[in-house]
Amino acid sequence: IAGITQAPTSQILAAGRRMTLRCTQDMRHNAMYWYRQDLGLGLRLIHYSNTAGTTGKGEVPDGYSVSRANTDDFPLTLASAVPSQTSVYFCASSKEGRGWPQHFGDGTRLSIL
Amino acid sequence: DAKTTQPPSMDCAEGRAANLPCNHSTISGNEYVYWYRQIHSQGPQYIIHGLKNNETNEMASLIITEDRKSSTLILPHATLRDTAVYYCIVSGTGKLIFGQGTTLQVKP
Asked: Burial of B104 by CB count in 10 Å (0-12 exposed, 13-18 middle, 19+ buried)?
């Protein structure tokens, strides 16, 4: 079934550790996105990529980095995790940017202790 | 991207139409209106989007006023499974800014 796969589903991580959240889509979508959602709040955009080889900053990019080496994969890296990065992380993709709907993964629940 | 205003919560009887309003008075001509919903802590689910014309798909209808300053999402026959947070988002770039949304409670 075509869609977005996120891994891991959940993770508990010690502060200061490095962590990479994986996101893969098989829909050949050009645009991909990373959001975080904190308890009781809406989603906030962290980083995005309009096409392979390009990335951009969203609303809350600090402490996160992304890469887009190919169309299918868009990993999100926390170089040195801090407790404030405890959140649920959602990856999304769309065929193009403007005018196309985004399809979301099931999320990664990350706890930083 | 233009901001949106939605009521924080609404109730709807099962089997009745649910009409969710959204104000976006500062919308620009090239900005789309998108609707998503989120059930529990699942990933957001795309419902429908439009630019100027009313739109309908298998899930819902989107009614956009002629001046484009407001819109209404219509779920024609709400079921208990439609209980969720519904987000109205206006965007001209593809990047989505999520607000607090409307919590729709469908009651038996």
From this structure: buried
